[in-house]
Amino acid sequence: MTATLVNIISVLLIGLIIYWFWIAKPATRHSVGGSVDILVDNGVYEPARIEVNVGQPITLRFTRKDHSPCAEKVVFADFGLTIDLPVDQTIDIKLQPENAGEYPFTCQMQMYRGMLVVK
Ligand SMILES: [Cu+2]
Question: Does residue 76 lie in a domain region?
């Protein structure tokens, strides 16, 4: 009986992991300039996919709620930016992407993952 229960829980956990990493689509926020508020909590950026227009200045406003050290920095590798995110503060990151493309942003361990899509 216990073994059966353990098996069921294992299968559910595997299903959850598959869903989380391969099936769940991040929320997308479209923005034509201006600013986008991004919440940093529970292992995800919300929204995690931000679409902007090429050449438009954009302000990404990160608010970190997650106290884990994992969330303490956001890294825009393609822009050469590593920015500290103190808990419960909103940090503005101003960008003006001049080339279309997909630019990932992550925490320093790449557990948190987001994508800036420039069109
Ligand atoms: Cu991390």
Answer: yes
Overall pTM > 0.85: no
Residue 64 backbone phi and psi in degrees, to 5: -95, 125
| Paired tokens of 105 | 């942003």
Cα 97 to chain centroid, rounded:
18
Give residue for tokens 């050290």: 69
Per-residue pLDDT of the chain (119 residues), as tens digits, is: 777 777 777 777 776 666 666 666 666 677 666 899 999 999 999 999 999 999 989 999 999 999 999 999 999 999 999 999 999 999 999 999 999 999 999 999 999 999 999 99
**Ligand 1 mean position to 19 CA, how many Å?**
20
Span from the CA of 73 to the centroid of ligand 1 (angstroms): 8
The residues, ordered by sequence, that sit 6+ positions from 17 with a Cβ below 8 Å of its Cβ are none
Q: What is the CATH number of the domain that holds 43?
A: 2.60.40.420
Give 83 Cα–ligand 1 centroid separation in angstroms.
13
- Cα of 1 vs centre of ligand 1, distance in Å, is 38
